């Protein structure tokens, strides 16, 4: 039986969400057939809807990598989402997406693993982080 990897994209900008999803799909199609795991891609544009998914414990027992926008709507920040995800599953690998380079400075309040500045290279960087996550977990 294949292990399951949940790949989460939580980005409120539909266009940018789509860009990241397309980059991650390339990675999934390239490696999934060769490996002993199943990747499931989840996309969320509404942060409050995603917080309800976390509360349902859907991601608690699986390998999870999350790409989370820092500035989400509905008064919920990417840092809050990551904190909640890591409370549910401490092994969650979190990549924070931000348009501001100031967020890149890590502090005790930020619990993300990496930060990606949203520029023309961001989707490719997200794909590289996914590839690295897979390599570290399964190879």
Strand order of the largest sheet: 2-1-3-4-5
Spatial separation of the terminal alpha carbons: 17 Å
CATH H-level superfamily title: Response regulator
* Rg measurement, Å: 14 Å
Count the strands? 5
Q: Report the uncertain regions.
A: none
Order of helices and strands: EHEHEHEEH
What name does the CATH topology carry? Rossmann fold
* Percent range for β-strand residues: 15-25%
Morphology: globular
User: Which architecture does the CATH hierarchy give at level 2?
Assistant: 3-Layer(aba) Sandwich
Percent of residues in helices:
25-40%
Structural class by helix and strand composition: alpha/beta
CATH class division: Alpha Beta
Number of domains: 1
Could you give a short account of the major beta sheet? 5 strands, parallel
Tally of DSSP helical segments: 4
How would you characterize the overall build of this protein?
Strand 1 (3-10), helix 1 (14-31) and strand 2 form a beta-alpha-beta unit. The mean pLDDT is 85. 40% of the residues lie in helices and 24% in strands. By secondary structure, it is an alpha/beta fold. It has a single domain (3-138), classed as Rossmann fold (3-Layer(aba) Sandwich), CATH 3.40.50. Helix 1 (14-31) runs parallel beside helix 4 and helix 2 runs parallel beside helix 3 (78-88). It has a five-stranded parallel sheet with strand order 2-1-3-4-5, sandwiched between helices. It has helices at 14-31, 47-55, 78-88, 122-138; strands at 3-10, 37-44, 63-69, 93-98, 114-117.
């Amino acid at each position: 039986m294949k292990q399951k990897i949940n790949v989460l994209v939580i980005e409120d900008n539909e266009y940018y969400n789509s860009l990241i999803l397309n980059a991650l799909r390339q990675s999934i199609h390239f490696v999934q057939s060769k490996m002993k795991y199943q990747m499931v891609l989840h996309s969320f544009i509404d942060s409050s809807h995603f917080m309800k998914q976390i509360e349902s414990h859907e991601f608690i027992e699986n390998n999870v990598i999350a790409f989370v926008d820092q500035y989400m709507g509905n008064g919920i920040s990417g840092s809050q989402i990551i904190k909640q995800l890591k409370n549910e599953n401490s092994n969650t690998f979190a990549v924070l997406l931000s348009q501001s380079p100031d967020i890149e400075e890590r502090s005790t309040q930020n619990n993300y693993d990496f930060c990606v500045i949203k520029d023309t290279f961001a989707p490719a960087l997200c794909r590289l982080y996914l590839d690295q996550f897979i390599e570290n977990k399964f190879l």
